[in-house]
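By convention, the C-alpha cell line describes the chain's fold. To illustrate:
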Amino acid sequence: MYILKVGTQTTVVGFTGFYFFGVNDRKPLDVRGIEIESESVHQLHAITTEGGHNRWNRLEFTLFPDFKFDIKFIWDQELQDEVDGYNRQI
C-alpha cells in the first residue's frame, strides 16, 4: 500500500508519503521521483472547492495492492493558522 500526502496553499504544494513493505514495515516514499505538477494540484483544489464547498488544505491519496485507491480531502486548521501567522509577519 502506498500513501501520498499533499499539502496545499495558495502558491505552494508539498508532498510526503510512505509505503508498506510487508504488513508492518513502513518505508518513506521518495516523492522526488513522483512527477506531479503543482498546477495540477491547484486545479484539483479549485474544482473540488468551487462554490465554497469541501474546504481542504491537505489531501491523502492511498493506493492499495489491488490497484483500488482512496482520496481523502482534509482541512488542517493548525496548518492554516501557521500559514496565516507567517503571512501576517511579511
About this structure: The chain is about 25% helix and 35% strand. The radius of gyration is 15 Å. The chain has a mean pLDDT of 87. The first helix runs from residue 38 to 48.
